Amino acid sequence: MWNPPGSSDRGCRAPGSRLARRVALGAFTLIELLVVIAVIAILVALLLPALSAAKEAGRSARCLGNLRQIGLGLQMYVEDTQAYPVFSFDQNGAMINLGVWSTLLVPYVKQDWTNQLYRCPSYSGLTLAGNDIAVPLGSYGYNANGVQFALSPLGLGGYPTEPGNTNSLKSISGSSVVAPADMIELGDANLMWVFPAILKTLYGIIGPVSYSGYARLDITSRDTTQNPGFSARAAILAAQQQRHRGRYNVMFCDGHSERPAEPKLFEKTDPGLARWNNDHLPHRDLLTR
To answer: How many CB atoms lie within 10 A of CB 123?
Structure first.
């Protein structure tokens, strides 16, 4: 049919022709959009763990870099003094104020306990300097005691030669370490339950509950927090799992590092226990549990 110029031909088009053209041009239906969204969600769910693992690998590498620098400072200290730094806090309650091990390393690493060197990027607890009545809180710990609960001749932190005399702390000589390549020196600290009353009494600050390290890497204290009867056990286990996915970054007396899983680091075999003691013997009888 002829149409005059300027007249509309809309009336001659088949109903739905405009929609048909849009579909022909590649428009998505609602079902197709929902399928695409579901596929994207699945891909994101698959990629997030890998991304999280990659981020943690980077944080762990930075942590190991910190520990290697601290370990190098320790080696230089031992070379200069022929002894390991003392640990100024006796677990049994005797306060021996001769300097925390990290303080003695300041001339070698040029940083103190509250500086960046002593902060693991995967650690979420408190970082506080120690004082006359309290041990420092923070990322890293020193093998001060060996397998014994208190300061002893077995670790690296020294021991009191006269019971009750806090000025009789004797340091451990470098030559006392029988197997430097198989003795734990320092690493990620054990985590403990730190609650507001402790912060107020010992550190003079007000703060929340945290799960913090206490400048010591110690098998007997770790066993205490793993005891099913310990009230904060579940929270401490969760915090340890979050830090390096349940692994510990550890330095040895010869300067090499390892990343053992927690059960491996704290295993109770004779070779495993010997790694804590400078005489390279297990001393199983000194374990608290």
So the answer is: 24
* Residue tagged 């004797």 (tokens): 170
Token match 């990290």: residue? 102
d(CA 96, CA 52): 42
What pLDDT is recorded for position 288?
80
- Residue 270 contacts residue 284 (beta carbons within 8 Å): yes
Predicted pLDDT of residue 1: 46
- 148 close to 220: Cβ distance less than 8 angstroms: yes
Contact by Cβ (8 Å): 154, 276: yes
Rounded mean pLDDT for each run of 10 residues along the chain, 289 residues in total: 50 51 62 81 71 77 96 96 83 54 92 94 93 89 92 90 71 95 97 93 92 93 90 92 93 96 95 98 90
- The pLDDT assigned to 117 comes to 96
Rounded-to-integer distance, Cα 34 and Cα 279, Å: 66
Q: What is the pLDDT of residue 164?
A: 60
| Angle between helix 233-242 and helix 219-226 axes, rounded to 10 deg | 120
Q: What is the DSSP string of the chain?
A: ----TT---GGGSPTTHHHHHHHHTTPPPHHHHHHHHHHHHHHHHHHHHHHHHHHHHHHHHHHHHHHHHHHHHHHHHHHHHSBPPP--B-TTS-B--S--HHHHTHHHHS--TTSGGG--TT--S--B--BTTB--BSSEEE--STTSSSS-TTSSS-EESSTT-TT-EEPPBGGG-S-GGGSEEEEEPPEEEE-HHHIIIII------EEEE-SB--HHHHHHHHSTT-TTHHHHHHHHHHGGGGB--EEETTS-EE--BHHHHT--SHHHHHTTSTT----GGG---
